[in-house]
Amino acid sequence: MYGEIALFSGNGNPQLAQEISQALAVPLCPADVFKFSNQNIFCRLKTSVRGKDVFIIQPVANSYDENGVLASVNDNLMELLIMIDTAKRDSAGRITAVVPYYGYGRTDKKDQPRVPITARLVADMISTAGANRFLTLDLHAGQIQGFFNIQVDEITAFYLLSDYVRKKHIPNAVVISGDIGATKRSRNFAQNLDLPLAIIEKRRVQQKDGSKAEVLNVIGEVKGKNCIIFDDEIDTAGTVAQAMVFLKEEGALDIYACVTHGVFSGPAVQRLQEAPVKEVVATNTVALPPHKRFPKLTQLSVAPLLAEVIRRVHLGISVGELFNE
Fold first, then answer.
1. Where are the chain's structural domains?
2. 233: which residues sit within 8 A by CB, 6+ positions away?
3. H-helix or E-strand containing 256?
4. How far is CA 294 from the centre of its chain?
5. What CATH number was assigned to the domain covering residues 5-157+303-323?
6. Does the predicted model carry a pTM greater than 0.85?
7. Is the pLDDT score of 314 beyond 90?
8. DSSP state of 307
């Protein structure tokens, strides 16, 4: 058995950490985590964690402070590593890295010559820093679990999202997979909601002038139906916005997008505001500043889910049973 829970938050998503703290009825431990003028990151724990069960909450994603200053994905990754190292050097009993969003997760394989597998590199860095366990939500690819040499709990917001959609009672609905690669995830979502599935296929075709153009095709029926696009994340929203326009052209009625991670990089917000979508549903794994919030966005909190998983990990209770009940 380890000592009592010691809950810490980096600067990546302090609001989510506070919500987890409230759901657990365990206060966040105080810590100083900041940058010196030379941009070096410094961490100092204000309470001893010797022998304690430490949980460090820090998504690896861009974030903004209260003044609107950007902290990059790399800043937040380094914060996580330094906080883990700090807890290890203070003789923590066990250290769990709670990473709601796993940055670099899309670089999970060598899909072209002379490229890295950065998802594996980040996993090695977290382990080397001193983490004993890793807790995350909805990895982009399941094989990333195997990149770690420490225990991994990958939980899912699948049921949180499907319950929300079910309560909306959307009539004559169909679940849409935005591309062939996301078909399995979308099929499971459709099955859970007892809805049909349609798949958007992207194909590169040769034109007469020798150039190639991208053509969309839909496998399944969408005409006269309300469409629910389901995926793990929206990043720049280029693909999903294009899919929304295509579905409208194919005769779809209302269009919804439902994802775990609302990253909303670059032009994403503008694209989604201009797209023919009725509602975008995402969780709060990634902290969104005011300028990335828009009227069509609904955010669901994963804090109660993460709090319950942290409780189960601390007590040595099965995490899998939480999703089998």
1. 5-157+303-323, 159-300
2. 138, 140, 259, 260, 261, 262, 263
3. strand 255-262
4. 19
5. 3.40.50.2020
6. yes
7. yes
8. H
The dihedral over CA atoms of 271, 275, 277, 283, expressed in degrees to the nearest 10, equals -10
Q: What spatial distance separates the first Cα and last Cα of the chain, rounded to whole Å?
A: 26
HEC string of 221-233?
A: CCCCCEEEEEEEE
Is the pLDDT assigned to residue 205 strictly greater than 70?
no
Q: Where are the beta strands (DSSP E) in 68-211?
A: 70-71, 94-99, 133-137, 151-155, 173-177, 197-206
Taking domain 159-300, whether its CATH number is 3.40.50.2020 is answered by: yes
HSE, CB side, 13 Å, CA atoms: give it for residue 248.
13
Note whether 75 and 59 are within 8 A (CB).
Answer: no
For 14-127, strand residue ranges (E) read 31-35, 41-45, 53-57, 63-64, 70-71, 94-99
Q: Is 202 a catalytic residue?
A: yes
Q: Which of 35, 88, 202, 248 is catalytic?
A: 202
Pairing verdict, β 173-177 and 226-234: parallel
Q: Going edge to edge, which strands form the sheet with 5-9?
A: 5-9, 53-57, 94-99, 133-137, 151-155
